[in-house]
Amino acid sequence: MQNSSITPSSDAWYGEPLELHSSGVADVLQSLHLDGASLTAAKYLYSTFGREALIKQIGEESARLLMGYRGLRQAQSKLVREDGGFSISGQEEMLRKMLLAFGDDLRVVLIYLASRLQTLRWVTQQKVVMPGAWAQEILNIDASLANRLGIWQMKWEMEDLAFRVLSPDTYREIAKMLDSKRTERESFIEEIVIRLKQELSRADINATVLGRPKHIYSIWKKMQGKSLDFANLYDVRAFRILVDDLKSCYAVLGLIHNLWQPIPREFDDYIARPKPNGYQSLHTVVMNEDGVAFEIQIRTHDMQQQAEYGLAAHWRYKEGAYSTVRVKNPKTIGQEGIVVDPKKHQGGTHSAAVAYEHQIAWARQLISWKEDAWDQLKHHEIDDHIYVLTPLGKVIALEKGSTPIDFAYAVHTDLGHRCRGARVDGAMVPLETQLANGQTVEVIAVKQGGPSRDWISPNRTYLRSHRARTKVRAWFNAIDDESINLASQKTSVEIRAEPKSDQNADSQIILHPSKTKQSHASDILVVGVDSLLTQLARCCRPVPPDLIAGFVTRGRGVSIHRRSCKTFRGLLERAPERVIQTAWSNSVGIGSGGGAQDKANSIRLFPADLAISALDRSDLMRELFEVLSRQGIHVIDLRKSVRKGFAQILLTIEISHSEGLRVVQNSLEEVKGVTEVRRR
Q1: Residue-level pLDDT at 91
Q2: What are the pLDDT digits (tens) for 589-635?
Q3: Given this model, what pLDDT does residue 527 score?
Q4: How many angstroms separate the CA atoms of 95 and 74, rounded?
Q5: Residue 544: Cβ within 10 Å count
Q6: What is the pLDDT of residue 278?
Q7: What pLDDT was estimated at residue 437?
Q8: Are 330 and 414 in contact (CB under 8 A)?
Q9: Does 417 share its domain with 453?
Q10: What's the CA gap between 658 and 674, in Å, rounded?
């Protein structure tokens, strides 16, 4: 038996032999029915191998779990000061690191909690004298985490053991009172259990009746919270009834309320209104003929499983199951940003789609736990971060006030560059929207492209984080003049509503070229639609003053087409209810048609496609570009194919209005060998 004082700087396991600690952690995880990779990681907690050596020794998956656990222990070591008190900066760093590590794999959470519980067991069994701050940390943070995840068996044991370390005299006093009344209490429980079984049998209800375990910390809390003495606590006489289905839960409730008098305001229906961690049960307090009150909990066997293992019950990492949810390589992210195809990942007792739902659910519980823990530690005003989720449940830490573009850059720089829109909790939002804790953000990205200069404008609020601003500035600093001209075709989109005082006002959709010298008024007026993402359709590339119309797409906002566009006509025929009236606003400047002079005058330029058919010859391209150069027309894309001596050329040029485009067409048609120039 050890009886020496342990300082916070001592070994992390407070004198417990490391192999014994590892074995104890594995036992705890075994009780949670975790997979082999987790158990293997637990058995190697004492190992000092580096990552590569661990991979060779125990495999990549177990090594990853073990490295995640080590990172948490390192953060933990900074939490308690030498004088036994808490370090506020250490708390903030530790909570943040814990949250982000937990967001990668739930099993890291469970290994960590199992390790903390095993340490508590060792300390109390060996009567090791511990700093109060250490036990308070477990009570405030670790037991709170187990509670948020709904792992009741861990929560209650952690609370009781930590309370025993913090208040040994009070703990012994309550334990003594429980023991002194044990014979009387056991006789009462046996009597009630027999009667309940008889009544349930008469009602032909298949059920299991149990006396509920007593937890000293919960008894003490109720004594404090309700100012009750021990004799008046009904918590020490409690029962649990397990049934086969939901219908039987309410049937049993009716039977109990018919047998004994229910106590008003002591009934909770957590089946109809589950707790945030998924806990479900019916709780009622009744009084028998002698005036003795006792609690009865009613739930199904599945609900009992949930109550014991919480969100961990949904994450049984069996071989072949979809065990971890990871963000795809950001360089291969498609048009919709972060994409998931659950149908391709079936396994275990749940499809991957259900697994995603559970991953999002427990990730949000982790975020809520972090806020609860920070508030309990009385330092919530210091934390200036928010925590949001990818569609796959990965937790991303951002500064308060961050936007979807900040989020995109936090996931990956390339995704930030290509960000053009976002959904927050499934709804399209403007890119300047400030994000909040626990929201799920999905980035809508183009396949290729770069950021907009508007994002770093001092007059706009597209970006909050210094990191994201630095990445955008680096993009523009790295490209030469030709690349800057090429990037000017990239059109960023912003939605701005007219003043709310005008009830009939139309929302305005503003299109900013990335190389704009000053902000402009609305280019397109969209009638009756507020706060929508818009884009000029590439199939027809509308240019003022073309007749235009808007089509509400699924997931990409409003697509603006020329009314003569064949694609638009097909859309109109298939879904006329999604077509909205649009027109160019009066603020669109009309220049000479395009080119350097219009740029110098800050005239708005739009991309337009010209298809050229011509006899192929060596000087053809040079002469075409000479015509364009004389008119100051900038070419931003060019594609050419030749078949049987005939050239097909597709030019994308910048133009301010369609009249100027016709002038360009006529000029190109005069080039030798050109047979047709048409707008595509």
Answers
A1: 61
A2: 555 555 555 555 556 788 899 999 999 988 898 899 888 888 888 88
A3: 54
A4: 12
A5: 20
A6: 77
A7: 80
A8: yes
A9: yes
A10: 21
Distances, alpha carbon 467 to alpha carbons 156, 194, 407, 416, 602, in Å: 42, 67, 11, 11, 30
Does an H or E element contain 267, and which?
strand 261-269
Considering the domain architecture, whether residues 465 and 503 belong to the same structural domain is answered as no
DSSP assigned state of 447 = S
Q: Residues, the chain, total?
A: 680
CATH number at residue 157: 1.10.3210.10
Of 28, 25, 33, nearest to 314 by C-alpha is: 33
Residues 354 and 246 in one domain: no
- Identify residue 478 by its one-letter amino acid code: A
Q: Are 38 and 123 within 8 A, CB to CB?
A: no
CA separation for the pair 506, 105 (Å, rounded): 47
Give the CA diameter of the chain: 111
The pLDDT value recorded for residue 532 is: 53
Q: Which residues contact 372 (CB under 8 A, 6 or more apart)?
A: 144, 148
* Residue 620: other Cβ atoms inside 10 A: 19
End-to-end CA distance of the chain: 87
Amino acid at 658: S
- Predicted pLDDT of residue 362: 63
Q: How far apart are CA 412 and CA 394, in angstroms?
A: 13
Q: Say which residues have a Cβ less than 8 Å from residue 179's Cβ, sequence separation at least 6.
A: none
Query: Quick one: 310 and 327 in the same domain?
Result: no
> Do 137 and 159 touch, CB atoms closer than 8 A?
no
Q: Among all chains, which residue has been given the structure tokens 């991953």?
A: 359
pLDDT at residue number 357: 64
Q: Which amino acid is at 34?
A: L
Cα–Cα distance between 427 and 336 in angstroms, integer? 14
Given a cut of 70, the residues of the chain with pLDDT beneath it are 1-14, 75-104, 180-181, 213, 225-236, 310-363, 366, 370-384, 479-497, 499-533, 554-557, 585-603
Which CATH number goes with the domain that contains 674? 3.30.70.260
Closest CA to 398 of 357, 444, 372, 367: 367
Last residue of a domain, one of 444, 478, 512: 478
Global pTM reads 0.53
On whether the CB atoms of residues 286 and 296 are closer than 8 A, the answer is yes
Domain range for residue 671? 596-679
**Helix ranges, 167-241 (H):** 168-180, 182-202, 216-225
